[in-house]
Amino acid sequence: MQKDIEYCSPEEIKAFQEKKLTEALAYLQEYSPYYKRMFKSYNIDIKKTRHLEDLVKIPFTEKKDLQLFNDEFLCCPKEKIIDYITTSGTLGDPVTFGCTEKDLQRLAYNEKKSFACAGLHPGNIVQLMTTLDKRFMAGLAYFLGIRELGASVIRVGNGIPELQWDTIMRIKPDTIMCVPSFILKLIQYAEEHGIDYKNSSVRRIIGIGEGLREQDFGLNLLGRRIKEKWDVQLFATYSSTEMGATFSECEYGCGGHIHPELIIVEIIGDDNMPVADGEAGEIVVTTLGVEGMPLLRFRTGDIASKRVEQCKCGRNSYRLTPLLGRKNNMIKFKGTTLYPPAINDVLDNTDYVENYVIVVSTNDAGTDDVLVKIALNHEPDFDVVKELKDSFRSRIRVAPQIEILSVDEIRQIVFPPKSRKPIKFIDLRSNK
Description:
single chain; 432 residues; alpha/beta; Rossmann fold; GMP Synthetase, Chain A, domain 3; 30% helix
């Protein structure tokens, strides 16, 4: 049986990825109208790009390129496309991706490895609390991966705590997969309806879309609050449609493991050059083994750092730290640099806040202003604005403006028509 590349030495992993890179570049040169044109425009000889360090000679691919030249990224006849997917549109207009049969098999393999990394095996039962429709890649990928692994899947979809608990009681899954902040709503529902959730069948929660840990890998406020209420194993993941790959934590919770056969990751600084291992920068990815729409040096806009020391689990594949935020969403407020997740962390862990949206704008002085609009689930007998501002100062050193609206008003902002994900951050800055 062939040894998993993640357990090979760092030198073997690098050599393996460089071989895969050579194959990926040759494929792009032959089949990608976009990259063929780009190689010619920049006089790039792909035969001279043999090492990972040589990638810096190649221009980045950006979201706007995918939006402007979407069809030119397709490397196969449209008849080979089995499934059409779109991105969530977080950074603008959604981008369409076409997946071939080979791409769907690659997705299944990716998620199989990620679930195995999180301790799943044949015999586990996973309750999937994410949608498989609305052109969403993630739900489809999770479903395919659980099947490939040989575990059982329950496709419940997102939301509706009553249905989730009914399913848990009926089928008794040991694992649930959902957005972490939804766990608090599940717990609240269980407490209000006399459900003994602490003694339920659930032993593991795999979080998607939101962070659970700080940069030192300790649980963040959201993670701690879940853990204090419900003593289950918590696993965080990081993925995106463009990458067609998932970084999942292992049992030691020390960053998301890369699958070297599926993706190459660079971390770049403000000068667009790679930073030292352990330093934070923008995640840039090159996909490996994608047939339909492979990407070369795609800028994700996400900020994290790379950890290269061997993990306690024995894997030598490098890991990514929890995301600091999105590069375009960085806020400079009252002399402090911060990202929206730091604000989310405070609000997600305030029990009287039902929902919220963060609005960033430019003030008359040309600097950033931050307004947090919140809805309350009950009326506390104290000054909510003062208490929240004190919480912000103790956590992130600065306090944004706070405006209280009704639950319905916030819901209309956070859940606009056609959006697959809640909109919790609105950027109105004039320099964007």
